[in-house]
Amino acid sequence: MSRQREGIGLTVEPISAAEHLAFVRAQRSVSFLQTPAWSRVKTEWRSESLGWFDGRRLVGAGLVLHRPVPRLDRFTLAYLPEGPVIDWTGDIDGWLDPLTSYLKAHGAFAIRLGPPVCTDSWSAAQIKEGIADPGIQRLTGLRSQWADPVGARVTSRLRAAGWLPQSPEDGFGVGHPQFKYEVPLAGRTEDDLLRGMNQQWRRNIKKAAKEGVEVTVGEDLKAFHDLYVHTADRDRFTPRPLRYFETMFAALSAEDPERIKLYLAHHQGDLVAATILVRVGAHAWYSYGASSTEKREVRGSNACQWAMIRDSLAAGCDVYDLRGITPTLDTDDPHVGLIQFKVGTGGQAVRYVGEWDLPLRPMVYRAFALHMRRRGR
């Protein structure tokens, strides 16, 4: 990522989807939520691609999703999920000030962004010990194995500039999770990754292979969605419609044929698990998963995960991202099962800077916040 040169101010202006995509492809890692294709998935939002220029040179980019205010359509919340893609190690005021000026001039009442910057991480071994210790209730009650000074500096600068943190204590909110679980892949082999998993995960992967579970990359989104709806009913969450996944696959595949893949695990002709993998550059994400209640003993979900991890490693990825977790380590909290499942992969829990709002028109921002509270976000 290019840095701002001393004494040269950056400017922000719209760029084409082609310019945006070319910039994304030149980076080692960019969130799929910051690709031009994501604007074609989030059709309920107006979107634009913005570029940061050092003279004529494009040095940063961001996908902005605009959400209008009810009954005040000329004002929008300008949202940059897991972005923008800029040099967060430098003078962030020099990057964010021109963004603020541009968006305010074009009708934004507030900006919400989620810097792709880590603050802390915790190893699988630490998390396992924390869950076993009744005196530890949350990840943040453990000493982090690694603290990123860049994350601390970004947090401090955002707060000093009037940005308001939006990430709730449980890690999940209106936007994207602040706590995630990631498996580092760089410099590792398949054997290394298996050794890093706990005994139960290794046993489940072997069990799936012994039972004859076959994992293939396919295109049957209807079969995935039927299983996903079954999973939603069992686990009590609201499923997305089939049309959402059809749009997601069409948009991301059109941008890059390797961007998104559907993994299907069959046992004796029955679909027992299905997962969706997204990859941009050297970062791969486990995005959605589904599993049947019957034949759970053949461990189709573990087989899908292992296939995605192996393919991510073969593609040269640096990290396999299992997405959000809550930071609870309390065994009485129903959310602890999520981190227990993911910690079996080895990997590490990572805390990011989280999402932040900058009110540009305080009265409109307060009205919007009230509206969101009334509708339960």
Automatic annotation (TrEMBL):
Keywords attached to this Swiss-Prot or TrEMBL record, sorted alphabetically, are: Acyltransferase, Cell shape, Cell wall biogenesis/degradation, Peptidoglycan synthesis, Transferase
Entry's InterPro entries?
A: Acyl_CoA_acyltransferase, FEMABX, PG_Glycine_Bridge_Synth
Per the UniProt record, one Pfam family is: FemAB
Fetch the SUPFAM superfamilies from UniProt. Acyl-CoA N-acyltransferases (Nat)
**Superkingdom, natural source:** Bacteria
Protein family according to the UniProt entry? Belongs to the FemABX family.
> PANTHER family from the entry?
LIPID II:GLYCINE GLYCYLTRANSFERASE
- Protein name as catalogued: Lipid II:glycine glycyltransferase FemX
